[in-house]
Design brief:
Number of helices: 7
Distance between the termini: 31 Å
Helix content: 55-70%
Order of helices and strands: HHEEHHHHH
Number of domains: 1
Largest sheet: 2 strands, antiparallel
Structural class: mainly alpha
Strand order of the largest sheet: 1-2
Shape: globular
Radius of gyration: 17 Å
């Protein structure tokens, strides 16, 4: 039972887990805030760009479409019924993850934190909140049937663990400047 919940939670969130990493790889470009400030601080900062948002969203949607083709064989191999992703859900998860991260950047700037500064809790779950919110808005029936309370509980446990461990690995191999 626990194994099937973990598999379902991980599979269902993959289109939300990937976009921010893809955005970093796409990097650069024009900042979303155009350099504007709110008070004395930047609205978002240079790390939130139009190109990164577009590439991250596209990567998440393409991953969801790829997962749709793998769902049957993966379900059979794992003995678990893994979800497939209708296009609105794919877009909601991927774009929502990006919006969640952008929202966290806004909150970080308001709290005086610099780009890359740690904000425990927010750093690990910002994109999850955005992804789930947009999934429920863009594909409500799918989201309600996929993200049961038990699956949501697993997501809230595994996501910070995955986030911290992948960031530490990225830091150790030189792909990130800080391990969070």
């Amino acid at each position: 039972m626990v194994g099937s919940l973990v598999a379902t939670a991980f599979w269902a969130m993959l289109p939300a887990y990937v976009p921010n990493n893809a955005a970093v790889l796409a990097g650069g470009g024009r900042p979303i805030d155009g350099g504007r400030t709110l008070g004395e601080r930047r609205v978002l900062g240079d790390g939130k760009t139009w190109r990164g948002t577009a590439v991250g969203t596209l990567a998440g949607v393409l991953l969801a479409l790829a997962l749709n083709t793998l769902s049957g064989p993966a379900s059979a191999a794992l003995g678990v019924s893994l979800p497939t992703f209708p296009l609105p859900a794919s877009v909601g998860l991927a774009f929502g993850a990006m919006v969640g991260d952008i929202g966290a950047s806004f909150l970080k700037r308001r709290s005086g934190r610099k780009r890359g500064a740690a904000f425990p809790g927010l750093d690990q779950l910002d994109f999850v909140v955005g992804a789930l919110l947009f999934a429920f808005v863009f594909a409500a029936d799918w989201a309600q049937s996929t993200f049961t309370p038990a699956v949501l509980a697993v997501i809230l446990v595994i996501t910070p663990l995955l986030h911290v461990s992948t960031n530490v690995v990225a830091f150790k191999i030189g792909a990130k400047d800080e391990p969070w």
